[in-house]
Design goal:
By secondary structure, the chain is an alpha/beta fold. The protein has a single domain, classed as 2-Layer Sandwich (Nucleotidyltransferase, domain 5). Strands 3-2-1-4-5 form a 5-stranded mixed β-sheet. The longest helix has 18 residues. The chain starts with a strand and ends with a helix.
Length: 144
């Protein structure tokens, strides 16, 4: 069985108030998990990495995901930079992004039988995760 995830991160102001969006579906398209949450002040790239880290945390700890029997986690991300860096195809020049990438690599090894496969998708194919990011940022802005 495979799981399908969409992740997104964004910052208003870059850097500025930032949020992440995570959507996980099973291989039948059923929604298993979704989250949109603010993460404080960050850049767009930091928010994208934090969304991937949150996805991996969920897969490691959420019983519905962890016990699903999935062996592959297909991750769709609209940040080419994040995808290429996570795959080791592009160098990571910024120290903060290097630290986040190390966290991703560590979390990938904790998934016990689920192999993550990340790929780049156009923004149009990432609308659900993007909507969660914007909703979280709007709610944060409106609560002030």
């Amino acid at each position: 069985m495979e799981l399908f995830a969409n992740i997104d991160g964004g910052a208003r102001g870059n850097p500025g108030p930032a949020a992440i969006g995570v959507v996980i579906r099973d291989d039948q398209g059923n929604l298993l998990y979704e989250e949109g949450s603010c993460i404080g002040h960050a850049t767009n790239n930091e928010a994208e990495y934090r969304a991937l880290i949150r996805l991996l945390e969920i897969c490691e700890t959420n019983p519905v995901i962890k016990d699903s029997g999935a062996t592959v986690l297909r991750v769709a991300c609209d940040s080419l930079l994040i995808v290429k860096q996570v795959l080791g195809e592009w160098k990571i020049k910024e120290a903060r992004l290097r630290a986040l990438n190390l966290e991703v690599q560590k979390r990938k090894s904790l998934l016990n039988g689920i192999t993550p496969r990340i790929r780049h998708v156009p923004r149009e194919e990432n609308k659900a995760a993007d909507a969660l990011v914007n909703r979280a940022l709007d709610e944060e802005e409106n609560s002030k």
